[in-house]
Design brief:
Number of strands: 5
Distance between the termini: 29 Å
Helix content: 40-55%
Radius of gyration: 21 Å
Order of helices and strands: HHHHHEHEHEHEEHHH
Length: 280
């Protein structure tokens, strides 16, 4: 897949305005797999919430488009030497190897893990909303990471507890840092709103500012926007999208699109290899 993408860019594919469909579908497949794994791992994944699943999937489609577009644009920028001549393919492929290893190597692994975590957190959030009449508050719980970073430590050490509807959760939540493994616990214990001021200086990492459980967006894209976007058709029986990037759309529209803008009902379905793995 990557070799074919490299050759297509080298042969003149317009990376400034277009998104290469095959690479886009492969990145989308990987991110969708992470999302459905996170939803399946949740204790009580949401059911009968077509709009929520459609928003998650559309968010993944937008993210995959931004990722593939940015990778292709960076690779194309190295096609020509200082003399203005096209570089030999092998020389160019060697020069862009750091770009490909960054985008589809370790960084894609991190993005997969983060998508899984945020989908799980989103499923938890839908449960919090359903049960808030009985247990109205949420408490920040410690990370399960064997090597935790310090950013969220004060949240659980201070036993921060706030109502489900508190605006604080729009700005601060588990999953607002890459590979964060904190969680929230629903409780009827008293809230501690007096602690909120202690965390005013804390900021989510770039691209993870939103609460996925509330808006269905797995992440916020920050790379330069492609002008190409998608014609989306329903998910196939295999769980892979049949969509392809074709029509024009602005960056603002791409970032703010929701399930309603897709014009269709959708549901996240387990890709067959993942389904087979989980049912053994």
């Amino acid at each position: 897949m990557l070799a074919a993408f490299l050759r297509k860019v080298y042969r003149g594919f317009d990376t400034s305005d277009d998104i290469e469909p095959a690479m886009w579908r492969e990145v989308l497949r990987i991110v969708n797999s992470a999302t459905v794994e996170g939803l399946a791992d949740a204790g009580t994944p949401p059911t009968h919430e077509a709009d929520f699943y459609a928003a998650l999937r559309h968010s993944n489609e937008v993210f995959a488009a931004f990722k593939v577009h940015n990778m292709g644009r960076l690779m194309a920028s190295k096609l020509f030497g200082a003399d203005g001549k096209l570089k030999p393919f092998n020389k160019w492929a060697e020069e862009v190897e750091p770009i490909t290893s960054h985008h589809v190597g370790a960084w894609l692994r991190t993005e997969y893990d983060t998508a899984l975590i945020r989908a799980h957190n989103a499923a938890d959030w839908r449960r919090f909303e359903r049960d808030k009449d009985v247990m109205p508050n949420l408490r920040w719980m410690p990370t399960t990471s064997p090597t935790p970073e310090s950013s969220h430590r004060a949240f659980w050490e201070r036993r921060l507890t706030l109502p489900v509807d508190d605006p604080f959760w729009n700005r601060h939540h588990p999953g607002d840092r890459w590979n964060c493994k904190c969680s929230l616990e629903q409780t009827d214990d008293p809230a501690t709103p007096e602690l909120k001021g202690e965390f005013d200086g804390e900021r989510p990492q770039r691209g993870l500012e939103n609460n996925t459980g509330r808006d269905g967006h797995t992440r916020i894209s920050r790379t330069r926007a492609p002008s190409a976007t998608f014609t989306v058709r329903p998910t196939s029986r295999t769980g892979s999208s049949a969509a392809s990037p074709t029509a024009k759309r602005t960056a603002t529209t791409a970032r703010t699109s929701t399930a309603a803008s897709t014009g269709r009902k959708a549901r996240m379905t387990l890709p067959r290899p993942l389904l087979q793995k989980r049912t053994k």
